[in-house]
Molybdate transport system ATP-binding protein (Asticcacaulis taihuensis), 240 residues
Amino acid sequence: MIEVSLKGMTGSFGLDASFSVPAQGVTAIWGPSGSGKTTLLRAIAGLTRLEGHVKIGTDIWQDGQGFVPVHKRRIGYVFQEASLLPHISVRGNLDFALKRNGGHTIDFDGLVDRLKLPPLLSRSVHKLSGGERQRVALARTLMSAPEILLMDEPLSSLDGEARAEIVPMIASLSRDTGLPVLYVSHDAYEVERLADRVLRMSKGRIIETPDTVFNANLDGLCEAQVRALAEAALKAGIKV
Ligand SMILES: Nc1ncnc2c1ncn2[C@@H]1O[C@H](COP(=O)(O)OP(=O)(O)OP(=O)(O)O)[C@@H](O)[C@H]1O
């Protein structure tokens, strides 16, 4: 299980978020702009220090007694804008991460194939499209052998075509490798297609978990958003 309970202030914003979800598949953290999704993800990563506990499977990253520093947590973090090393090739970026992954064995060719990167390996990163950059960023993150993937609006700067190409790659990656993904988004399309379960956020709190979604207050949601919630609940095995 992924068990999180975090509480505290960043500036004038208060976060008070608790949830417990299986450590497998894609868990979407979904909510409007300013609801605290990024703040929660950063606190789970240990980039922002709040009170509470964070447990990933058997690893305790934070509890009342201890706090594992961010560089000792096996996290893959993918942001909206991929920050690749600019003056080396795609392969150079991937090798850089591979050599620094603490000796973990990685199926380099398998990952490169999965993300359709073979034709790009010798390319310079500044000649990549936005979608290609994000696929390289994802591959590079996976080369570091994370035990969980934290993705913060990774597709929000891409056009529809690039998004439609990457969404199934993320879904199958999590399904086939067993790598759990916490996926921050405000986008119903992505949540509907990707999420095995949804945590809905508002004003710094988790207002719905997979277990409560059918009692959810759906006022103000558009049809696509309602469909996304229903789809994710069904995938999570919630009976209507
Ligand atoms: N370091 C900080 N200092 C002060 N306020 C902050 C800090 N980081 C975030 N905030 C504020 O906390 C609130 C939540 O921000 P956060 O980025 O977590 O929301 P979000 O749901 O991820 O939004 P978006 O979808 O727009 O990225 C916002 O009001 C933001 O201005």
Q: What stands out?
A: The chain has one domain: 2-236. The mean pLDDT is 89. Residues 10-11, 13, 31, 33-39, 186 surround adenosine-5'-triphosphate (CB under 6 Å).
